[in-house]
Write a structure and sequence with these properties.
By secondary structure, the protein is an alpha/beta fold. The chain is built from twelve helices and 14 strands. The strands form two sheets. Strands 5-4-3-2-1-12-13-14 form an eight-stranded mixed β-sheet, with helices on both faces. A six-stranded mixed β-sheet has the order 8-7-6-9-11-10.
């Protein structure tokens, strides 16, 4: 039996237009009608995620920032796992020394120090996730979507945020057009500390969290809170920040466009994000439950 389905967003639930397709939306409603809870598990913050899944018909629980925050369907925070200030300072200094563009995701919102860099890097991110999308279209999509995402821009290299004792840093995301060629030393630096986990949602970024802020840990904690065995969960994803979730779930599902590591890990492979792969996985779960009920 599947009682909870957790789905990643980018490259998974969202299509190449950064939208939840009608097919996926219909399937989510079908899951809810069948008594299956649908959870969105994303590297995005709540303020970034909500405009992209805005619907009166579905109000999912949100596992955000790779597991650094969980919000119930009413928007109440039920968990947050910040990075300590000493570690934030060490990582951000290392990023600046290496001239790497990065953003901070915090309890007070998301922060960037360059609107131009943000648009460029989001466009690169979209092209990496959806290779058939031209860079010109990706830039237009990135610019249009940024208006919805409540990004805060600062010009003090984030020092005001980092030094504010009332603000918790939940995730640091770093971008490079050179991909892991330039980001690998940063990843190694972070992992050597022992208190961080470094994942990726695209070949042009790394996502830095507290080691206890992982989608798999968050999914297991939420299922336990709901009194549901983790074996009764399904997780759907496409990239490395989905690894822990797909490994933890009773059934791990790889998108057709997933990176090889995720396909090798998963129990089941569905269609791509532009072919309503999430919907296909949801109907598979509903069919599994119907079969189990007949036994």
């Amino acid at each position: 039996m599947i009682s909870i389905i957790a789905s990643d967003m980018d490259g998974t639930l969202l299509n190449d237009k950064m939208q939840v397709s009608d097919g996926n939306m219909t399937a989510i409603k079908a899951a809810q009608d069948a008594g299956i809870e649908f959870v969105v598990a994303t590297g995005r913050s709540r303020s970034e995620a909500l405009p992209l899944i805005d619907s009166d018909d579905i109000q999912p629980t949100l596992i955000t920032m790779n597991g650094a925050q969980i919000f119930d369907s009413l928007g109440n925070e039920v968990l947050n796992v910040p990075i300590d200030s000493e570690t934030v300072t060490a990582v951000t200094e290392n990023l600046r020394e290496n001239n790497i563009y990065f953003e901070l995701m915090t309890t007070a919102g998301n922060y960037s120090d360059s609107k131009v860099s943000r648009i460029q890097n989001v466009a690169d991110f979209l092209v990496n996730l959806n290779p058939n999308t031209s860079y010109k279209i990706a830039v237009a999509l990135a610019a249009a979507r940024l208006e919805l995402m409540n990004i805060n821009y600062v010009d003090d290299h984030y020092q005001g945020i980092i030094n504010d004792p009332t603000v918790k840093i939940l995730k640091i995301i770093a971008f490079s057009t050179q991909g892991m060629t330039e980001l690998a030393p940063i990843k190694a630096f972070c992992e050597a500390r022992g208190d961080l986990v470094v994942t990726s949602s695209s070949s042009n970024n790394i996502e830095i969290n507290h080691i206890d802020a992982q989608k798999g840990i968050a999914l297991a904690a939420y299922a336990e809170q709901r009194g549901i065995p983790v074996e009764q969960t399904m997780a759907i994803g496409d990239n490395l920040n989905d690894f822990s979730m797909i490994k933890t779930a009773g059934i791990g599902v790889a998108m057709g466009n997933a990176v090889p590591t995720i396909k090798e890990l998963a129990n089941y492979q569905t269609a791509t994000n532009i072919q309503d792969g999430v919907a296909q996985a949801i109907y598979h779960a509903i069919d599994l439950n119907r079969t189990a009920e007949k036994k």
